[in-house]
Design brief:
This protein is of the alpha+beta class and 81 residues long. The chain is built from 3 helices and 2 strands.
Length: 81
């Protein structure tokens, strides 16, 4: 469940009254002030990735090592296989 609110005098004030059980674990994520993080008109990330992948020639995909997913850290950071 997500509850929205704002900070007032250093305290988090929720937009609606909420009763949480004592000892409940919570997570606080600070959103950009005055901005919505969600753009309903934006393309889904899957569509953006498909467009990027479509521009890569097959020959470049063929150059990738067969064990890339198994040893990604090795190929990116040089860690031992």
């Amino acid at each position: 469940m997500v509850y929205r609110g704002h900070v007032e005098n250093g305290m988090i004030q929720l937009e609606e009254a909420v009763v949480l059980p004592e000892g409940a674990e919570v997570r606080v994520e600070v959103a950009a002030a005055g901005k919505d993080k969600f753009d309903p008109d934006a393309l889904p990330i899957e569509d953006k990735l498909r467009a990027i992948v479509a521009d890569v020639p097959k020959e470049e995909w063929d150059r990738l090592p067969a064990d890339l997913t198994d040893h990604l850290d090795h190929y990116i950071y040089g860690t031992p296989k």
